Amino acid sequence: MSDREQTFVIVGAGLAGAKAAEALREAGFEGRVALIGEEAEHPYERPPLSKDYLRGEVEREKILVHDESFYRRHEIELILDQAAVGLDAERRELELAGGERLAFDRLLLATGASPRRLNVAGAELDGIHYLRDVGSSDAIHARLERGGKAVVIGAGWIGSEIAASARQLGVEVTVIESASVPLERVLGAEVGAVYRDLHLAHGVEMLLGTGVEAFEGSGAVERVRTSDGRTVECDFAVVGIGVSPRTELARAAGLAVDDGIVVDGSLQSSHPAIFAAGDVARQRHPTLGPLRVEHWANALHQGPVAARNMLGCGEPYDRVPYFFSDQYEVGMEYAGLARQWDRVVFRGKPDSHEFIAFWLREGRLLAGMNFNVWDVNEQIQELVAKRPPVEPAALEDPGVALGDLARNRA
Ligand SMILES: Cc1cc2nc3c(=O)[nH]c(=O)nc-3n(C[C@H](O)[C@H](O)[C@H](O)COP(=O)(O)OP(=O)(O)OC[C@H]3O[C@@H](n4cnc5c(N)ncnc54)[C@H](O)[C@@H]3O)c2cc1C
Fold first, then answer.
1. What is the pTM of this model?
2. Which ligand 1 atom is at minimum distance from the Cα of 54?
3. Calpha distance 219→357 (Å, rounded)
4. Which one of 95, 136, 162, 295 would you pick to mutate in the ligand 1 pocket, going by the greatest count of ligand atoms within 8 A of its CB?
5. Which residues lie with the beta carbon below 6 Å from any ligand 1 atom?
6. Coil, helix or strand for 58?
7. With 0-12 CB in 10 A as exposed, 13-18 as middle and 19+ as buried, what is 91?
8. Per-residue confidence (pLDDT) for residue 404, from 0 to 100
9. Sheet holding 7-11, edge to edge
10. Closest ligand 1 atom, CA of 115?
């Protein structure tokens, strides 16, 4: 069958989906490309939703992945405000909420993830927000504009960024986090403490090592009761306790699912015509093993690789995980993956707020993070990709160029 007679469908009009559609056209695919999104919005980027967009500092058009005319110009059929509700993998057919059936030759599932809910007493009260889409960011922005007192539940990346943005808008903030420091699971106690101190310095009240027992109020949330018996008065709450991959369609179609749609090194699912990319994909990474990455760069790069592999390119996805975060006057980038480590080494002093941290296990480098130090992350990625044995002294020494360390390991 020639290209022109084929239909490639992408479910999920987020970053991975939009970049995949772009890559299909870039690769010269001339068949039908349909990009289906349940949101009414054109594909947009989510990182600003907890940062400058949340604070009202950038316009909505600025967060779009492509300008609106892009899809028309490239003959990408954008079907918005329409969820895909059924998938028959054997018949290669997708069912849309409106009842339409769409036959496909290749399918990409780029359905992303949705916020985990906090199921405690009072969870149904008004004024308890979750942040994932532009509508929820608008709602939290409107609430922040009214001022008052916010409780942020969860000091992962999203919770920490919301707390920072809220403080930047002058809102009083209490953070409730079950770990002993923010971001402990990813960064560990030592680096997490840097973020704790950053928030304390900006006037955030941090209730660490405790959870939420209940929300209380009449109609709307008025206070949060913690599991260690405290009561925190508030005007509203925002919950950021992680996300779950949106695997409903894949699961119903009988594809392999295990905390994400299981895909191989080239992002192909257990069905040869179906691929997955972005937050929803659990990939067998060639060097890091099974891995699901919930970050912007992963969606940005996996979408196009999946698209090329739908065309039969057989391109492995082997990038080192990368993410960034901005809080107050601090920006960071992290490359690699450290799940368990035995040592953290610093180049620069953590309390100076300009440093690089490296995570090591048995003398091998697993991950590196630059904190208010710029133009080094590519070198960190290069170095981490090789997971080399390294001398901690060389990592600590600002006189040793990271690029040289990476090159010496080549
Ligand atoms: C507030 C916020 C801040 C973030 N900040 C950062 C950051 O600073 N750094 C970083 O690295 N990462 C950040 N991220 C993570 C990053 O945005 C995600 O990793 C990225 O959006 C994943 O892209 P995706 O295309 O896989 O999924 P998504 O962006 O979630 O897109 C998936 C789309 O699919 C749609 N969909 C799902 N199911 C269906 C269906 N059945 N039918 C039709 N459509 C469907 C969804 O509605 C959604 O629009 C942030 C995320 C959020 C929410």
1. 0.97
2. 1
3. 46
4. 295
5. 11-17, 36-39, 46-47, 49-50, 83-84, 110-113, 131-132, 158, 246, 249, 278-279, 294-297, 299, 323-325
6. coil
7. exposed
8. 82
9. 76-79, 32-36, 7-11, 106-109, 274-276
10. 53
* CA atoms of 307 and 326, how far apart (whole Å): 30
Tell me the mean pLDDT in the region 258-277. Answer: 98
Ligand 1 atom having least distance to the Cα of 322: 11
- Residue 3: pLDDT band (50, 70, 90) is confident
Domains along the sequence of the chain with CATH = 3-114+243-310 (3.50.50.60), 128-239 (3.50.50.60), 329-408 (3.30.390.30)
Going from the C-alpha of 396 to that of each of 110, 133, 232, 358, 406, the distances in angstroms are 40, 40, 42, 9, 15
Task: Find the mean pLDDT for residues 194-220.
Answer: 98
CB 266 within 8 A of CB 315: yes
- The partner residues of 243 in beta bridges, in order of sequence, read 115
- Mean pLDDT across the chain: 96
Closest residue by CA, ligand 1 atom 29: 14
In the reported structure, the alpha carbon of residue 112 is separated from the centroid of ligand 1 by a whole-number distance in angstroms of 5
Long-range contacts of 129-132, Cβ-Cβ distance < 8 Å, separation of 24 or more: 129/236, 129/237, 129/238, 129/239, 130/238, 130/239, 130/240, 131/49, 131/50, 131/54, 131/158, 131/162, 131/238, 131/240, 132/46, 132/49, 132/243
- 75 alpha carbon to ligand 1 midpoint, in Å? 24
| Number of alpha carbons in the 13 Å side-chain half-sphere of residue 321 | 23
Q: Is 7 exposed, middle or buried (0-12, 13-18, 19+ CB in 10 A)?
A: middle
Give 46 Cα–ligand 1 centroid separation in angstroms.
Answer: 6
